Amino acid sequence: MAKTLSLSDENYSTRMLSVSRLLKAASKEVLYQAGENLASEEFQGSFAKDLNGALSLIAEFYTQQGLGRLVMDGAETGFLLVRNYDCATCSVAENDGQTYCWIDAGFIAGALRKMLGTDFVVIETKCRGTGSEYCEFLIAKSRTPKRG
Fold first, then answer.
1. Residue 148 within any structural domain of the chain
2. Structurally, how many domains does the chain consist of?
3. What CATH number is attached to the domain comprising 60?
4. Which of 13, 26, 83, 115 could form a disulfide with 48 if both were Cys (CB 3.0 to 4.6 A apart)?
5. pTM across the whole model
6. b vs e for 39-73, b when ≥16 Cβ sit within 10 Å of the residue's Cβ?
């Protein structure tokens, strides 16, 4: 696994928010893709038996890297909710009605694809930027054909 970040959580969050503002409209897609790419590299050669196992490995990575504390919050028909407490990406975000953790959503999707060989869509539904104390991600299998 990668080295632990040397930036403080506040510095990391400030930099991520700055990148988001710079990219403006394209930021969601660009950061989501960046997260997918990072996860593909990080989890290269990693395999999980099922979704719970893969999410456990992602949660372990987040804890080790100081990126937050991922917790499965509950399953609904066809999708799963995961919360990230103490999220490093948005720790200094103001409550402005925006979500900021697109790189995390992409990272989770990319890691799941790498470990399970199936495409997933991950959407952030709650964030510090929307006034929540945690980030919440909705995870569902993609309905589009699997990518290479």
1. no
2. 1
3. 3.30.1380.20
4. 115
5. 0.81
6. beebbeeeebeebeebbebbbebbeeebbbebeee
pLDDT digit string (tens) for the chain, length 148 residues: 444 444 456 676 677 667 666 666 567 888 899 999 999 999 999 999 998 899 999 999 999 999 999 998 765 556 789 999 999 999 988 899 989 999 999 999 999 999 999 999 999 999 999 999 999 999 999 887 555 5
Residue with tokens 């959580």, as numbered in its chain = 9
b/e per residue 110-147 (b: at least 16 CB within 10 A)? bbbbbbbeebbbbebebbbbbebebbbbbbeeeeeeee
Q: Is 18 helix (H, G, I), strand (E, B) or coil?
A: helix
Q: Note whether 86 and 68 are within 8 A (CB).
A: yes
